[in-house]
Design brief:
The chain is an all-alpha fold. Helices cover about 45% and strands about 5% of the residues.
């Protein structure tokens, strides 16, 4: 069950409404880096979490928090849109380009939601859940969550730097702080699972004896001239999981040219393919 007390998680105030910034804030709601993405990602990860129930609780609590972030941002969008034009005709007559941009306002916010937030990105594209990663493997999911919070924090920092409104900066500084915590909590969960030496390679339930181990820790170079690949921490020394040593190799073709054979009769192929 979910509960609400009808109060915002953190204060949201806008001193100077800015419809253009409202459009930018939509990216934090419905963009691939946004709050809908992480809320749904953590929610479905929680619903499918098996094993120790504390990981389910961790995920579900954070998913619930992210729903509150959506509410905060939606409120911020609506408050910033208070200065948007209500009549398209007025804006068109004042704009030599025909008001096609409407001073940066997302047309959907104007035409479809009555100057309110929507589950779309800054271009008005609806979030379609294609970036929800819930694998059923707790370590894989925690690793994906670190990336999700990292890109979300990058976005929040960019938004922070886009505005001079004190209220918006205050709200975004809170969201940035929560992104900091979330990055750390997912890393802490990976540590709780045993750290790099136990977690990786994911899934750790698959016996490495059954993989082609000569390729397990080799950084492969594909330069046409056959030169050695660039070296780095990923190409020498102990592997991050502590199970072997990194190495480098110039990759050569190990297989043959593919030959699929003729097409089957009545398959819709050309007669020359059969």
């Amino acid at each position: 069950m979910f509960y609400t007390d009808n109060k915002l998680q953190y204060p949201v105030r806008v001193e100077t409404p800015d419809p253009t910034f409202a459009r930018a804030l939509q990216q934090a709601i419905g963009g691939v880096e946004g709050e809908i993405r992480v809320a749904m990602q953590y929610f479905f990860q929680a619903c499918g979490a098996r094993g120790n129930p504390k990981f389910r609780d961790l995920l579900m609590n954070t998913a619930t928090e992210e729903l509150g972030h959506i509410e905060m941002l939606a409120t911020a969008v609506a408050l910033n849109l208070e200065g948007a034009p209500l009549k398209l005709r007025e804006e068109v007559s004042a704009d030599s380009v025909g008001g096609s941009v409407i001073n940066g306002v997302n047309m959907k916010n104007l035409l479809s939601s009555g100057l309110s937030a929507m589950p779309v990105d800054s271009d008005g594209v609806p979030f379609d859940m294609s970036h929800i990663y819930a694998s059923g493997n707790i370590a894989a999911d925690m690793t994906a969550n670190v990336a999700a919070e990292s890109t979300g924090r990058v976005l929040a920092v960019r938004l922070y730097n886009m505005t001079n409104d004190p209220g918006m900066k205050d709200m975004l500084s809170y969201l940035i702080a929560r992104d900091t915590m979330h990055q750390n909590q997912w890393l802490a969960a990976l540590e709780e699972l045993g750290g790099a030496s136990n977690v990786f390679p994911i899934p750790n339930s698959f016996p490495q004896a059954d993989e082609k181990q000569e390729f397990s820790y080799a950084f492969l170079g594909f330069q046409l001239d056959g030169s050695d690949p660039v070296s780095g921490r990923w190409s020498e020394g102990q592997s991050i999981d502590g199970k072997d040593q990194f190495s480098t190799a110039v990759m050569r073709p190990l297989g043959e040219k593919p030959n699929l054979g003729p097409a089957k009769p009545n398959s819709g192929a050309q007669s020359e393919q059969i």
